[in-house]
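Reviewer comment 2.1 asked that we show a complete input and output for one of the modelled complexes. We chose the heme B/C case, as it is the one discussed in the main text.
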Amino acid sequence: MELDGVMLSRMLTAMTLMFHIIFATIGVGMPVMIAIAEFIGIKRNDPYYLLMARRWARGYTITVAVGVVTGTIIGLQLSLLWPSFMEVAGQIIALPLFMETFAFFFEAIFLGIYLYTWDRFKGKWTHWLLTIPVMIGSSASALFITTVNAFMNTPQGFELKDGEMINIDPIAAMLNPAMPSKVLHVVATSYVTSAAILAAIAAFAILKGRRGQYEQKALRLTVACTFVFSLLISITGDISAKFLADVQPEKLAAAEWHFETEKGADLIFFGTLNEDGEIENEIRIPKVLSFLAGNSFETEVIGLNETPEDERPPLWIHYMFDTMVSIGMFLMATSTIFVLMDRVKKWNALNKPLLLAILASGPLAMVAIEAGWILAEVGRQPWIMRGYMKVAEAATTSDSVGLTFVLFALLYLVLGIMAVVVLIKMFKNSPAEVELEKRFPNRG
Ligand code: HEB
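Response of the prediction step:
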């Protein structure tokens, strides 16, 4: 592999996005979890849930801070690394990019008020109401930024003449065909990932022997949320697959190693390709790809061979799809088993294997987020703006990207370590039970 400017620009962008998405995902999902915990706390007058909301909100500030830094870096890198793309597309995506910033400030302002007004209002619900603009702000910024990504997949709202955009209609560009499925899937997967991460933390505490009420209630709530949200992601994932089959068939075909157009197409799970390009060692589920593409086992699914050879996405994205879907099934299975076992008094839902599975589900959900984005981004190759501009045409011609790459890698390493250390310190010095005594000394 030759490390030219384009390759280095791609690597630097990929690294930045893969780091940023961790914090962005938590940023979208966590406000919802905080709002749910505080809601239950007020409703049942239960200090444990109120404490949960407080502690989650406190941890959330750290991840928001890192998200702001990496988000700003992305903005800078876009213009520095992809100047031709920004020159052409900049005018049309400026609107959603601006609205994302606006949504972020909206969220940040109310988050600030939320954090400083615990116990300051007469009515408890007044404080809870502040979670609504925070949730709206964070989910709206996901909506706007995903709109830009959707635009890169299905650009519309302009005409291209001599390399310049004319007749620009930014609203039409935002309402592009890929937008609904992507926004739904991104928001739903952020919710499930945040729930799964909080569940993993609760499971970890219980495995370490902290079996207090606080930990058990936190575990029940977060796993129940994982269960509900995992139903949502299977619906939105299905919508995404149907969208691809319809509008971006080459991405689905590459992800599914589906080479010939046919009806009753099989779903290929894992497997390998031999030298002749034949599929081996796969798990083959008859006709299910057709069903995924169009809700009937006889739907015709367009094969990769219909795409010109130099416009085919790399075939390794298949493994990204498999990883993402397997983890989705794992999340659904563990949360369902826990919720069921927890209902039956005789059964012990707090058994070690199940707790270990819940512990694993947090990091795994984040792996699925990364796999999903790699699938979506690499699956768009070779295009930066599908049908209009290839990645190679958009990159910078500067040759100092190599050093920049190393510097940013170090920066992310330091940021990542700092975030983890601060979070651990924050909670280690104040265990839940101690904090509960301090804040709610007169409870029942
Ligand atoms: Fe996913 C992406 C499907 C699960 C995360 N996904 C995606 C796609 C598809 C899918 C088709 C592509 C789209 C485009 O590109 O447009 N999924 C799916 C399914 C499932 C899933 C079917 C099963 C249920 N996911 C999942 C999970 C997760 C995810 C579990 C995590 C948690 N994805 C994701 C992401 C992405 C994806 C992040 C990127 C974005 C978009 O949407 O694109």
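The first strand starts at residue 159 and ends at 161. We note this here for comparison with the apo prediction described in Section 3.2.
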